[in-house]
Amino acid sequence: MNVLVVEDQALVRGAIGSLLGLESGIDVVGLAEHGQAALALIANNPPDIVLTDIEMPEMTGLELAAEIQRHHSQIHVVVMTTFSKSGYIKRALDLGVKAFILKEQPTEYLTSALAAVMQGKRVIEPELALMALDDNDPLSDKERQAIRLAGEGMATKLIAQRLCLSEGTVRNYLSEAIAKLNATNRIDAARIAKQKGWI
Amino acid sequence: MNVLVVEDQALVRGAIGSLLGLESGIDVVGLAEHGQAALALIANNPPDIVLTDIEMPEMTGLELAAEIQRHHSQIHVVVMTTFSKSGYIKRALDLGVKAFILKEQPTEYLTSALAAVMQGKRVIEPELALMALDDNDPLSDKERQAIRLAGEGMATKLIAQRLCLSEGTVRNYLSEAIAKLNATNRIDAARIAKQKGWI
DNA sequence: AAAAAGATCTGACAATTGTCACCTCACATC
DNA sequence: GATGTGAGGTGACAATTGTCAGATCTTTTT
C-alpha cells in the first residue's frame, strides 16, 4: 500500500519514513511537512493512506483530514498525536479518520494499525473512544477565555480589561472554573483545561 | 559505534532507532524512555554515544547529560530537541554535550553529526551557539525549582513540602524570581522562564 | 581571627486571589 | 403581566501570595 507521511519535524518525518520503509507491504510514496504540501502531493499522486501528525503549523492534521474527506474520500486518513485530548479524538472521529495513533504507543502499533486500515478496519483504543464520548467541556465561553488569560500569567485586573468585564465578575468566572475543574487555583485550572484541549 | 537512544515517545524512539539501524557504522544498542532507564542501561553496557531528547518526564535529557558527565565522562552525549531555547543550548554546552540537534533538521544532519562526534568533533549550528552567548539565566537553583512547581499550579505550602523548605522561604524565592524576570506574578515568571529554557 | 557573603528562616504587612450570598437588568416564556 | 433564566455586578470575608526588613547560622575571603 502507498503511504504519504505528513509531519512537521523533519527528523521525525524522516525517521518514520525509514521505519515504514522497512515494512513489507508498505511503500512510502511521499513526505510532506504540512497539510498544504500534502494536498499538492495528493493531487498528483493519490496514496492509499495519509499518515499525518495533528499539531502542525499552517494546516493541522485535522484540517487536512477534513479536506481529504471532502475531495478525496477514497483515501484513508490515519492521525498521530502526542496528546490524547478528548477534543482531538472527537473531531477526528467526526472527520472519518480511520485510525488514531498516540506517539507514546510502540512502532508495532502503528504498522499493525496501517495494515488493519487497509483491510477496511478502524483502529482506536477503546479508552480513547470513551474519552471522545465524555468530552463534555463544562466551561462557558467567558470562563474559558478568563482561564486562558489567567494561564498566561495575567492579573485579574488585566483580564477584566481585556474581556470588558468588572474585576469581580472575572473572579467569579475563575472561581466557577476552578470549582468545575476540581482545581486548587487558577493556574491548576488552566493546566487541566489545556490538557483536555478545552482552551 | 554503539548508540543508546533516549526519547519518551515510543513511536519516535522506535522510528529513530530504525533510522539509525540502517546506517552502516551505527549499532543501536538500546532504547530508553527516560533518563532513569537510560542510566540503568548505561551501567550494564556503556555505549559510545547517548542520543537523548531534552523534554522528558522524570529526568530531562540535560539532567541525564549532567549525570553522564559526572559518572561516565567517556560517553559522548548528543541532545535533540524541538525548541531552540537559549537556556537549553547554554546548559548543554556547559555540560559537555557534543552535538545539539533540532528536530526540524533533516535526518542526514543527525547521522552526519553522530559520525563527526565519533571523530572527536563538536557539532552545533553557529546561530545556536550565538544564542547561548546572550543567555544569562539569573535564577538560582532553588528559585528555578520553586518557579517550576509554581508553574504547575502547586500552592506555596506544597512547594515548601516538596523542597523541604519553610513556606516563607519559598515565598522569598518566588518573590526574587518574579523580580529578576520582571514578571507580575509567579505564573508570569514561570511562563517567561519556560520560554527561555531556564526551567 | 575578623569580615563578608551565602542560604535559610521569621514575622509583619499589603495586595491579590478565591468564595459566597445576594442584587440588577434584559429578555424570553407562559 | 408575571415568572424564569442567564449574564453581569457588588460587597464582604478568608486564604493565599508578594514584599521586605531583619535574624541565624554556615562558608569563604581577607
Written account of the structure:
Chains A, B: One of its GO terms (molecular function) is DNA binding. The structure is a homodimer of 199-residue chains. The radius of gyration of chain A is 20 Å and the shape is elongated. In chain A, helix 4 packs across helix 6. Chain A is of the alpha/beta class. Helices cover 54% and strands 13% of the residues of chain A. The longest helix of chain A is centred in the last third of the chain and has 14 residues. Chain A folds into 2 domains: 132 residues, 3-Layer(aba) Sandwich (Rossmann fold), CATH 3.40.50.2300; 56 residues, Arc Repressor Mutant, subunit A (Orthogonal Bundle). Chains A and B meet through helix 1, helix 5 and helix 10 of A and helix 1, helix 5 and helix 10 of B. Chain A binds a DNA duplex (30 and 30 nucleotides) through helix 9.
Short description:
Two copies of one chain form a homodimer. The first copy, chain A, is an alpha/beta fold. Chain A is built from ten helices and five strands.
Strands, helices and their partners?
The structure is a homodimer of 199-residue chains.
Chain A: E1 2-6, H1 10-22, E2 27-32, H2 35-44, E3 49-53, H3 61-71, E4 76-81, H4 86-94, E5 99-102, H5 107-118, H6 126-133, H7 141-151, H8 156-163, H9 167-180, H10 186-196
Parallel strand pairs in A: 1-2, 1-3, 3-4, 4-5
Chain A binds a DNA duplex (30 and 30 nucleotides) through helix 9.
